[in-house]
Amino acid sequence: MRVFILFIITILMGINTAFAYEIVLPKEKKTIVNTKYAFFIGKAKNSEIIEINDQKVYIAQNGAFAHSIKLKDGENRIVIRSNFNTQVYKIYRNPAIQNTKPELLEFTPQIYTVIKDNSPLRSSPVDGGMNRLSHLFEETSLLIDGEKGDFYRVFLSKNNYAWISKKHVKKSNKKIEPNFITTNTETYKNASVYSIEFTEKIPYTIEENDKELIFKTYNPFVSEESVYTLNIKKPEKYYYKINLNKGQYALKINEFPTPEQNLEGITITIDPGHGGTEKGAIGCLGDEEKKINLQIAEQLKTLLENLGANVVMTRECDAYISLDDRVKIAQDNYSDLFISIHLNSIPDIEMNVHKNKGTSVFYYNPNSKMLAKTLENSITQALNTKKAGTHSASFAVLRPTDYIGVLVEVAYMTNPLDSVLYTKEDFPSETAKAITDGILNFLNNEN
User: Fold this and answer.
1) Is 102 within 8 Å of 149 (Cβ atoms)?
2) pLDDT surpassing 60 at residue 366
3) CA pair distance 284, 18, nearest whole angstrom
């Protein structure tokens, strides 16, 4: 009889396990984190009712769920309980480190030299965000008169300073006095080249307003008021690139080509986000973002090519491609548009299934804002996703100015409601069609 009872208990436990929820993330029941919240995603059976630390969890129609718990410093005991199963997670949160802000140390102005191309000149001593003023060339001379943390302060002109990372410059012993030589303008069919030449390489910045590009070069080695400015009228749709040969800056502004029919003559780089060892976000049901991104990209490639576009892919299989290589692929193929495809994940905040969902589109340069807005409209209308907004962000693939570039977050991988959408069989094709329509609307000035 005892054996029979144990047999029945074992069967019942097996049934409970078979019908119990599954936690996709976190993978370990004991972890150490630095985040403010513990984020749980997974899938459940229709008949399950789940509570995490006595808080009822929303479960979507496909069984997907996501929930966050605010963590205290030290050990947090988190109990996940349903009518079939109970699990306990122990998450240790490292106490937050209070970083003291470094002080500005000023010193006698000294000449430094930029040691590599594409070194960011910033408006603040912060390594990140929307604070890039320009990208300096190797051997550009700078007048530096202070330091703050990991940055040097660059003197540009009277009451006008910038910042550069210490790792991007070295001290120079040579004395320089750059002299202005000449300016020149050349006009072509779809482009204009504005040049300004000095005897030495000196710092520059690019500013934009609604109507103009403002190109400034600074010569503080001669005078604190020595600033050379070119105010250039912007085309409606444009991209630009700055080259430096010896002391001559050449700013080339391209007017976006107007196709004679559909997308003929337009080169578009499609960038399926992540790949290889970089999986991207993991969905509530265990789906990998990198795979869905590629599925959308493949469908998009076919649609755009059918309209006559020259399409370049940053990856066509499950391979890791660095951010620098993605940019290089676009630039080497003289791309007009750059479309990076992603699905979003919820950051270190309190989870809200009705708020943290939908489509958002990111851009960095002002010339890409119009495309971002147009794509957000076309995608949300076609897929019936929530408008999560167009946002400026300093993503590496969006920073180049020599193409119009956007990054599309089609939906949230980690939102149960959006998971119902992106797990549908026709999601990649519908998304590709919406992006294609958005590109056509952008070219035809339709929002």
Assistant:
1) yes
2) yes
3) 18
Residue 341 has pLDDT above 60, yes or no: yes
Residue whose token pair is 């250039």: 232
Contact at 8 Å (CB) between 383 and 409? no
pLDDT of residue 257: 87
What percent of the chain is helix, strand and coil (3-state, nearest 5)? 20, 40, 40
Place of tokens 């030449």: 197
Q: Cβ distance 335 to 266 under 8 Å?
A: no
pLDDT exceeds 80 at position 7: no
Dump the DSSP string for 275-341.
BTTB---B-TTS-BHHHHHHHHHHHHHHHHHHTT-EEEES-SSS----HHHHHHHHHHTT-SEEEEE
Residue 271 contacts by C-beta under 8 Å, 6 or more apart in sequence?
A: 297, 313, 314, 315, 326, 330, 338, 339, 340, 341, 397
- What's the pLDDT score for residue 445? 86
Distance CA 181, CA 183 (A): 7
Q: How many CB atoms lie within 10 A of CB 328?
A: 14
Sign of the C-alpha dihedral, residues 375, 381, 385, 389?
A: positive
pLDDT at 1: 55
* CA within 13 Å, CB half, 224: 9
Domains, the chain, ranges and CATH?
20-93 (2.60.40.10), 101-255 (no CATH), 267-443 (3.40.630.40)
**Which DSSP state fits 199?**
S
Collapsing DSSP states into helix, strand and coil, what is residue 212?
strand
CA 343/CA 283 separation, integer angstroms: 10
Average pLDDT over residues 255-275: 93
Eight-class DSSP state of 104: P
H-type alpha helices, 103-161: none
Mean per-residue pLDDT over the chain, rounded = 93
Looking at residue 51, its pLDDT comes to 96
Residue 9 has pLDDT above 60, yes or no: no
- State whether residue 50 is helix, strand or coil: strand
